[in-house]
Amino acid sequence: MDTVRTESSAVIDAPPAEVYAIFADYRNAHPQILPKPYFGDLKVEQGGVGAGTVYRTSVTVMGMSTNYHMAVTEPEPGRLLVEKDLDLDVTTSFRVEPVEDGRKSRVTIATDWRPKPGIRGWIEKLSTPGVMRKLYDAELKLVQEYVKNKQRSGGGGGGGFE
């Protein structure tokens, strides 16, 4: 079956470097922007910031959990972060682009995945993209909240929700 792409975008009220740093920080910031209860704990196995990071997490939707074992690369450091599952045919990217002369950022979260074969895959192909967009929209809202909280607290330290 062909690869399916699901994506969602939003403009975040912060410069690209600040937003990109949130996605790249798998030890502190990134876990705080994962929508609960869908995402389980993010457990870093290697690295922790940007390329070279390897981590595990799970996603539970409609009572079904999927475990992910992700390796992170930065094909375009500061602009494009990519997570590739080491076991499944799933790749998620986070693209951060400047808007309004770099005062804001357009963030696009996209996942390319291959549905299972047969009727189950056909059902996945129909139902999964909508669910994924809902998760990405929630994550993008959490990024905006994280940025606002960090700006309110003076931008210090490692987080927006502490």
Can you describe what's shown?
- With 162 residues, the chain is of the alpha+beta class.
- The protein has a single domain (4-152), classed as Alpha-D-Glucose-1,6-Bisphosphate, Chain A, domain 4 (2-Layer Sandwich), CATH 3.30.530.
- The chain is built from three helices and seven strands.
- The chain has helices at 16-24, 29-32, 118-152; strands at residues 4-12, 43-46, 54-61, 64-76, 80-85, 90-99, 104-113.
- A seven-stranded antiparallel sheet has the order 1-7-6-5-4-3-2, with helices on one face.
- Strand 6 (90-99) and strand 7 form a beta hairpin.
- The longest helix is centred in the last third of the chain and has 35 residues, at 118-152.
- The chain is globular.
- The termini are far apart.
Write the topology of this structure.
Elements: E1 4-12, H1 16-24, H2 29-32, E2 43-46, E3 54-61, E4 64-76, E5 80-85, E6 90-99, E7 104-113, H3 118-152
Antiparallel strand pairs: 1-7, 2-3, 3-4, 4-5, 5-6, 6-7
